[in-house]
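Retro notes, item 3 of 5
We never archived the inputs for the flavin-adenine dinucleotide complex last cycle. Fixing that now. Sequence and ligand:
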Amino acid sequence: MRNWDGSITSRPAARVSPANVSEIIAVITNIKKYPSPVRAVGAFSSSTRCAAADGGTVVDMGKMNRILEYGEGYIRVQAGARLYEVARELQKRGLEFAASPGPSVMSMGSAACGATLAPAMPGQSGQLSSYAVAMKLVTPAGELLEVDNSKPELLRLLRCSYGLLGLVYEITLLVRPQRALKLRFDQLPLNTVLQLLTALDYNAVSLGLQVFPFRKRVAVEHRGEHTAGRGSRRLVWRLQRWVLQQLQPHLGELLARIPVNAVRYRLIDGLNQALNTGFGKALSGAGVTTGDRIVRWPGNKRVRQTVWVFPAVSFAGVLNEYVDFCRTHFESCGYRCNLPTACELIAADNESLLSVSSDGPVFTLEPRSTADEGWNDFLVDFNDFCSRLGGRPLFNQTRGLSRDQARRAYAGRLANFSNLRKKVDPHDRLLNAFFDQILA
Ligand SMILES: Cc1cc2nc3c(=O)[nH]c(=O)nc-3n(C[C@H](O)[C@H](O)[C@H](O)COP(=O)(O)OP(=O)(O)OC[C@H]3O[C@@H](n4cnc5c(N)ncnc54)[C@H](O)[C@@H]3O)c2cc1C
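Structure as it came back at the time:
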């Protein structure tokens, strides 16, 4: 079994796709037929082994994918429904998720109980899971459990449980009336952006960056609420997604075959910058709704990315050092990413025990490439760099994470989660090797 982009392989002994909760209970309680670890899987689009079940049982939630109820300010869904499908149905009713991540293939189950980052919008929390106000699950003992706001600590734990405390089959999520966004793009020198970042009120803005380390340039996307009505550039937005996620990586790979370094990288940098600037201009002004942004990922499966986050207050310094890191790595190892690095402002969020932005707003740092030769070694050095600078990894999105790096970032919170997990699942029915190593 391979994950979405084919970078991770898992070899489970059994694989089932339950159609109802009784079938989930039957799996959990029959250890002989369905060996441990039992792992719930949505789209298996995570870039770590968090959902892997080597020698165990994969529970593919894909058949439990219905929207069960549209309530006043909430929606009730089955865990296997895909985020973009639910977003599309909400849009038809003039609604959207209370926090909206980007284009994706993820399932509602993992969105409710894993790290799903949503670009900051003033007044909103950083993770979609914070808006999961009720969940129904099958515990490791095969019992049914319903958790809602009347048990806030348990809900807080479940929102970062990655299938280790139970298999979630139903979720109630808060939704809100759809809003249109006004977008503005600038291409700026790195130094100007570093100054801009230090002067920002992180709780009052929405901001995404595309960084070109070798040109020392940054494309900045500012977003604000467009109060004059619905946005009008939905098609341009979709075209931009397709070009940046499909065409740009293909061209990057093609250009990477040019044998002369100086020519190759001049063309790669020029192309990446021109595409970002061109679409930036086309999308400036009245833009799109936040729901428009959660389209099905049109992506190129060869694109790989990894994520660490850093406190927003110190991010200017981190970004400056990152640019130096990329240049030094290139000089010593001859490798550099052939796609720009993305950064996104994520709002503060203390609604889950292992939240990445529990202490305040953070910026993501997301190098991307087409996994060309040298990418895996780059990841090792990049993880060291981020850990040294006090970054926080994500258990479902940071590639090649070590136990020491996880511990350094989450310290007591990880130990706390580990102790609670042991109480809920004393026989390790749901614990896979990935989390065993991280939590040990
Ligand atoms: C193309 C692409 C775009 C992406 N865009 C974004 C983005 O915009 N924002 C963002 O934050 N991330 C993004 N990601 C990362 C990815 O979506 C997350 O890692 C997400 O958690 C994966 O969802 P999934 O359904 O594929 O979960 P899986 O990989 O199948 O599982 C993730 C974890 O959740 C657990 N799990 C899944 N379902 C259940 C359930 N029903 N009950 C209990 N546990 C469960 C699994 O056991 C596992 O531990 C993107 C990834 C890709 C490949």
